């Protein structure tokens, strides 16, 4: 039986016009496959790339705001590599194409290269991430990770702690120097999947990776968890606190992490206010420090002798929502 990864082939008639438009865009995007080079180890990825070049069929447009991101159905080569999952004679792959049609993203060559490098390094370090199949100047091809996205599942403190563990492992694998590494850069909960093959949480999108302070990801992660609908409930605050505490435990300083979350999360709210032209987000940025303190108290934690610390003036945050 075909996986739900390909059930998108059966779509309501109301979406047919959109599918036609997407098909044209997909045909243009598929042309870049011939420009890509297989990732290491090439003995594994070269047959996968060859199969994609020979017979990839677009199934679904996964994203279009930051890149043209397509789910592809690819005839499975023989034998199927152990790292690839066979869906009834086909493989599911994801093609991401960065180009000038997506303003504000920087040079497409830099973005594709950074993401490809990050995915490869994560895999080498044993961090669960999609297998990179191939990459080029403006695109990359990777295997699809099947599972529900974290944005769509029930959230509880355990899931929040699992997210913190993945983010910490990511930072360690991509470390540049103490307290700095290549970041996830976009902690949108839609960028994480509960992998059905392993049951583990998997980060699937490193398209916004950049070098920065690790706590930028932690602060944005708290912001994303709190805002996740239904937002700002007691349960959401409990999850955000659990996320920050677990990261702090792994980093060796819970108090330091908890004290810096408000400034980092507030910075993320301010960015969101600009991107969405949403004054409410700006108001939340101002209120977050107080709300965070209340959340800690409700979880049985107090500020004690440590204080909420601001971000240094010269520091800033980049990336996109």
Describe the protein.
The protein is of the alpha+beta class and 321 residues long. It has two domains: 10-143, Phosphorylase Kinase, domain 1 (2-Layer Sandwich); 150-298, no CATH class. It contains eight helices and eleven strands. It has helices at residues 16-30, 42-55, 108-124, 157-173, 214-227, 234-251, 254-276, 279-298; strands at 37-38, 57-63, 68-75, 90-97, 132-135, 139-143, 175-177, 180-182, 192-194, 201-203, 211-213. It has a six-stranded antiparallel β-sheet with strand order 1-5-6-4-3-2. The protein has a three-stranded antiparallel β-sheet with strand order 7-8-11. A hairpin with a 2-residue loop joins strand 7 and strand 8 (180-182).
Order of helices and strands: HEHEEEHEEHEEEEEHHHH
Report the average pLDDT across residues. Answer: 88
The tally of structural domains comes to 2
Terminal CA distance: 36 Å
What share of the residues does DSSP label as strand, in percent? 15-25%
The count of strands amounts to 11
Anisotropy-based shape: globular
- Largest β-sheet summary: 6 strands, antiparallel
Biggest sheet: strand arrangement: 1-5-6-4-3-2
Helix fraction? 40-55%
Structural class: alpha+beta
Count of DSSP helices?
Answer: 8
Please mark out the parts with pLDDT under 50 across 5 or more consecutive residues, or reply none: 313-321
Radius of gyration: 20 Å
Key phrases:
disordered C terminus; globular; 6-stranded antiparallel beta sheet; 3-stranded antiparallel beta sheet; alpha+beta; about 325 residues; 2 domains
